[in-house]
Amino acid sequence: MAAPMELYCWKGDYGLPSVDVDCLTVLAYAKFAGAPLKVHKITNPWRSPTGTLPALKTREEGSLSQPSKIIIQLRKQKYNADYDLSAKEGADTLAFVSLLEEKLLPAVIYTQWVDAKNYVDVTRRWYAEHTPFPLNFLLPNRMHSRQIERLRLIRGDAILEPEEQLEKELYQDALECMTLLSQRLGSHKFFFGDSPSSLDAYVFGHLAPLLKIKLPNAKLQQHLNSLENLQQFCSNILLLYFPSDSREAPSRNTAVHTDAGDFDNEPHKRRNQILSVLFAVAAMLGYAVLSGIVTIHSSRSQLEEPRHDDGDEDDEEQE
Amino acid sequence: MSLAAEAFVSQIAAAEPWPENATLYQPLREDQILLSDCASSLAVQAYLRMLGLPVRVRCRANAEYMSPSGKVPFIHVGNQVVSELGPIMQFTRAKGHSLSDSLDDVQRAEMKAYMELVNNMLLTAELYIQWCYQNTAAEITRPRYSSPYSWPLNHILAYQKQWEVRRKMNAIGWAGKSLEQVYEDVSQCCQALSQRLGTQPFFFNKQPTELDALVFGHLFTILTTRLTTDELSEKIKSFSNLLSFCRRIEQAYFESQDRDSQSGALDYSKGPSLM
Predict the structure, then answer these.
(1) How far is B262 from chain A (nearest CA, A)?
(2) Contact B72, B66 (CB under 8 A)
(3) By CB atoms within 10 Å of each CB, which of A215, A240, B77, B253 scores lowest?
(4) Model's pTM, two decimal places?
(5) Pick from B274, B265, B229, B263: which is nearest to B20 by CA?
(6) Strand, coil or helix: A127
(7) In chain B, which segments carry CATH 1.20.1050.10?
(8) A92: which chain B residues are within 8 Å (Cβ-Cβ)?
(9) CA of B142, closest CA in chain A: separation in Å?
(10) What ipTM was reported for this prediction?
């Protein structure tokens, strides 16, 4: 075990070590288990060995990208956060992870990627601002359509229902799920005793983005804020296991708040103005050239004329 | 549906008692129904029997297209049609029938979590083995699924369904799994259920809950359905407490009641027996 395994994740923001649910789950698990990983926080999924994030690059087994597989791989390397759990607690872990995947995950996908206002104002903007240049036009839209497709397939409907109906159903399930988790957690620090396990990693991964990423339509967030123990649970993990990320949060947050005002629209407006003027000029020139008001031939001869005088004799000599 | 309208409907539902002529619809039992649908249907029947609510079972070749959500089974009670176990549970609760009233908050949270475990792993594994494992899909699933339809509709519908299930597997990350891994997952799920059940008669002590109905529906169907290989049912048979759990529920809610009512073919809905 000379070289540590390498983990590729989405970059963090909003005081989170990563903005993505799956990446957060894996990062939290690795921290809980004390696995020495070399973490690459990147914003270009094409640079990951599997083309998706998160991805774990191992020597023996190639690259893995599903969170459950990554966790199993870490467990094989003896980095096991669930070592102390009894068989029944292990069974409970499996059950609550299923609950999260079936009930909460669809609502998280919905609130980040499908809800039009949240997607346009926050999610797409974040991914567009952070992914490198040519990809930033392509990637957010591709992720958007992929997430919608995923939601549709998880629900098993032929087409997604109209938004209001769908939102109501998903949120109803998700709110119930959060309440159940809160009841299960009770006043404990972690789900099973005093040390965190994989279930804590999964719950943290799903809840922390809801808690930290401020969205315009924040029904899930409001409900989560009313469940104090879950909120406390997430901020505890952030403080204990990701102190550097959570320390960045305040400065970052104020920046976001000032951004939210008119200041932020200004550069975009200016850029759009410049772009549209450029486009108009290009269109007019193009039209002029095509319709023969300005011909390329005449313009070239005009340009070449001064040079023509100098090079005239040389040309003649060569001939 | 607006909130006001929904409150109104649930009020009506609460006001009306459970009628004698409630009906449950499922696909044809002999030639058509698939393992996963059969399991869901049996879970609903077990749930209603545990509550003591009478329901007649009707088999219809087009049950899937009659259902409001496109999924079977569904029940027709009075003026209302409700499909799938989750909504049916809500519906009966609105009428004042529930199995989980005696549980405390933590137990209820655990019950819901284990129910999702069954949906997430057992049901998905059933779908995988039905539609994504070539042998089963070609020999059993597609012919059965398309049995009511004539050429060329039978092929079109069966492949359409298979395509849809495969895309779902892709979306939830099961597409890359091998059959062995799926069996491993089933085993893991049963291990969890077996741990949770322990030596108790039901998952939460003496009284059956929704979870018991759901687990019974799936395990019993897997145990009594013949597939191309026995491997799936063998996985369950290695957990003796789950086996005796299935027998116990079968005896308590299916055999005794069937014997009492002597209603013959209409109510005898479960198919083969474990004994």
Answers:
(1) 39
(2) no
(3) A240
(4) 0.80
(5) B263
(6) helix
(7) 105-262
(8) 110, 113, 196
(9) 19
(10) 0.84
